[in-house]
Each structure stands twice: as structure tokens, then as C-alpha cells.
Write a structure and sequence with these properties.
The chain is an alpha/beta fold and 344 residues long. It has 3 domains: 63 residues, Nucleic acid-binding proteins (OB fold (Dihydrolipoamide Acetyltransferase, E2P), Beta Barrel), CATH 2.40.50.140; 162 residues, Rossmann fold (3-Layer(aba) Sandwich); 57 residues, Probable gtpase engc, domain 3 (Ribonucleotide Reductase Protein R1, domain 1), CATH 1.10.40.50. 34% of the residues lie in helices and 23% in strands. It is built from 10 helices and 13 strands. The protein has a 5-stranded mixed β-barrel. The chain is flat. The protein starts with 6 loop residues before the first strand and ends with a helix.
Length: 344
């Protein structure tokens, strides 16, 4: 390798636009060029962990400079929590998204459904890993797994115990073939513990969780890519407590195929699934085939994405305002008519 020769490298870490890239078996510090930074329009234009980039080497091959971002085959995004202005890329070029959730106080079906929507929309295939299997009795475990299976139709669901290693072999089989994936979940669910098990040695730091609410502190503070002995690549991400679905598109239908299939059988195309006659969704709820909470979460995310879409589309905002004004005028006319009929 010689300085100023353009090569392809893999981004393995990112922290405030400071990067590390993997090239020819070495991890090197890297930064983007001034031209790259000046041409970037949003955070999506900057590299993230898992990206393939074009680099040149400097300082006798000890430092890399990123000149270009190569096309991505998948990208996992979330809304920027604090400003709400831009997408936050989490991981790129992944084949699987492992949603990691603890079977303690962290267990939450509504959050699982939300993460599944984002995972499907990334272009990768989701898989669910429940940790802390040792904290559940057989009856409780069966109940939680049954609810998860209904919330994640067609998705692999596995249980592991990171401390004893039980169930880790099933995860290893999912990693066969040198695939790229990322771990997604809250702090303290055992992502780093599981990663260390898969690596066969201590690669990521771990901490204990609080007993009163099963929450952990942010042990992993930045995204980091690890290459396992078998060739698989795992991106470990900081714990996520909020996950806004600003950029989900097709993921909702992939995560709720049962609800959308039922909705297609409703008598009315614009059925709101509340009290309309011939509503197949409400019939399924009455028959115990669809949990009411699942429909509630589906509609909540549907509204959230509609409002986001409206916010970013000026034409739709204008149409929505026009419809709102027309409805308000209609209500005023009804009120005026009632007053005339009453004689005042």
C-alpha cells in the first residue's frame, strides 16, 4: 500500500464524525475530507458503521482519509431524538437486525413491534433474541414467547442466557455464512454479554442493571463493528430507550401482515376499524384472534407515520388544511341550520 492510492475500506466505528476503518487486516483512524463534508446535505450523506468507503492512506499508512461513500444495500435509521430534524443512521449494509430484549422488566411487546417495523424497513431481515432466560419460570416463559410469536409473525425468535451460554448456539447458526448484522435494544438487556459469548472472549464492556426497573446504564457509548472468528460481522449499538418511526415506509405492512390482511377483508375500503359494520378487524378481536393492544399499536404507528409524511410534504399539508377548513365550515353550517330550526 502507498499513500494517496485509493482503496476500499469498511467503517468499523463512528463517534462524532471521527471514524475507524478496517483495511487489509488493520483498524485505522479516519476522517472525511473537507470536500466530502461540504457536499453532504444531511447525516445520511456521512458514513456510518458498516459502510464501505473509498479512502487514501496518509502518515505512512497509519491514518485514512475518506473521500467517498459507496452504495448501500441496507440502512437502519431512527429519528433524531433531541432535535427531530434529521435521520440518524444506526447501521449500514446489514443482512439481519437482531432485536435483543430481556425477559425481565425490559420485556415490552409494543416496543418489540415498533423495532420490528424499523428493522423490516431497513432492507434487512429481523430476528428476535430474548435474553435472561434464567429469570423466567416455564409457564411465564411460554406466555411471553407466545405473545412474541404473535407480534413477530414469520420472524425467528430465540431465547438465550448470556451468563450460562444456553441458547447461544442457535444464534451462532443464524450467523453462519459470514453475514453482517446489528444488535438493537435497550441498555442492560445483555447485548454486550451476548457479543462476548459469540466472540469467545471479552470484546465489549458490561455492567449490571438496576434491580428496581431492570434498566442499565449505557455501557456501549458508540456504534462498533466486531468481526467474529467465523467471519460474521456484528454491529453493537448503544442502548435505545426511544425509537421514533420517522422514516419507516414498508416496514409497517411487513410487521403487521395479520392486521393488514384482515383490513383488506373489511366491507369499506376506508374502514377505521372502530364501529363500522362488516369490519373484519373488529370481528377478529371479538373472536379472540387478534389482541386489541396489537391493533392499538398498529394504529398509533400508522398515525405517527402519516403526520411525519404530512410534515415533509408541502402539497399534503395544504390538502390537509383544506380538508380541515371544509370540515369546520360544514360543522358551522350544521350549527347554523339547527339554530334556525329552533327559531333563534
Amino acid at each position: 500500500m502507498t499513500d494517496n492510492q485509493t482503496m476500499h475500506a469498511l467503517v468499523t466505528a463512528e463517534h462524532r464524525q471521527a471514524y475507524r476503518v478496517h483495511l487489509d487486516g488493520k483498524d485505522l483512524p479516519a476522517q472525511v475530507t473537507g470536500k466530502f463534508m461540504g457536499e453532504a446535505v444531511s447525516r445520511l450523506d456521512f458514513p456510518t458503521v458498516g459502510d464501505n468507503v473509498e479512502v487514501t492512506l496518509h502518515d505512512n499508512g497509519e491514518k485514512a482519509v475518506i473521500h467517498a461513500l459507496l452504495p448501500r444495500k441496507s440502512i437502519l435509521l431512527r429519528k433524531e431524538v433531541w432535535t427531530g430534524k434529521d435521520a440518524q443512521p444506526i447501521a449500514a449494509n446489514i443482512d439481519k437486525v437482531f432485536i435483543v430484549m430481556g425477559l425481565d422488566g425490559n420485556y415490552n411487546i409494543a416496543r418489540l413491534e415498533r423495532l420490528l417495523v424499523a428493522a423490516w424497513d431497513s432492507g434487512a431481515v429481523p430476528s428476535v433474541i430474548f435474553t435472561k432466560k434464567d429469570l423466567c419460570g416455564p409457564a411465564e416463559l411460554d406466555e411471553k414467547l407466545s405473545a412474541a410469536a404473535q407480534a413477530a409473525p414469520g420472524v425467528d425468535v430465540n431465547c438465550v442466557c448470556g451468563v450460562s451460554g444456553e441458547g447461544v448456539e442457535a444464534v451462532e447458526r443464524l450467523l453462519a455464512g459470514g453475514i453482517s448484522c446489528c444488535f438493537l435494544g435497550s441498555s442492560g438487556v445483555g447485548k454486550s454479554t451476548l457479543l462476548n459469548r459469540l466472540c469467545g472472549r471479552e470484546m465489549a464492556a458490561t455492567r449490571e442493571v438496576r434491580e428496581d426497573d431492570s434498566r442499565g446504564r449505557h455501557t456501549t457509548v458508540s456504534r462498533q463493528l466486531y468481526i467474529l472468528p467465523g467471519g460474521a460481522k456484528i454491529i453493537d449499538t448503544p442502548g435505545i430507550r426511544e425509537f421514533c418511526l420517522e422514516y419507516a415506509e414498508d416496514g409497517l405492512g411487513s410487521s403487521f401482515p395479520d392486521v393488514e390482511e384482515l383490513a383488506a377483508r373489511c366491507r369499506f375500503n376506508d374502514c377505521s376499524h372502530e364501529s363500522e359494520p362488516g369490519c373484519a378487524v373488529q370481528e377478529a378481536i371479538a373472536a379472540g384472534e387478534l389482541p386489541p393492544a396489537r391493533l392499538k399499536n398498529y394504529r398509533k404507528m400508522q398515525r405517527e407515520m402519516f403526520l411525519t409524511e404530512t410534515k415533509h410534504d408541502a402539497k399534503k399539508r395544504m390538502l390537509l388544511k383544506k380538508e380541515s377548513r371544509a370540515f369546520a365550515k360544514h360543522c358551522r353550517n350544521i350549527t347554523a341550520t339547527k339554530r334556525k330550526l329552533r327559531g333563534y
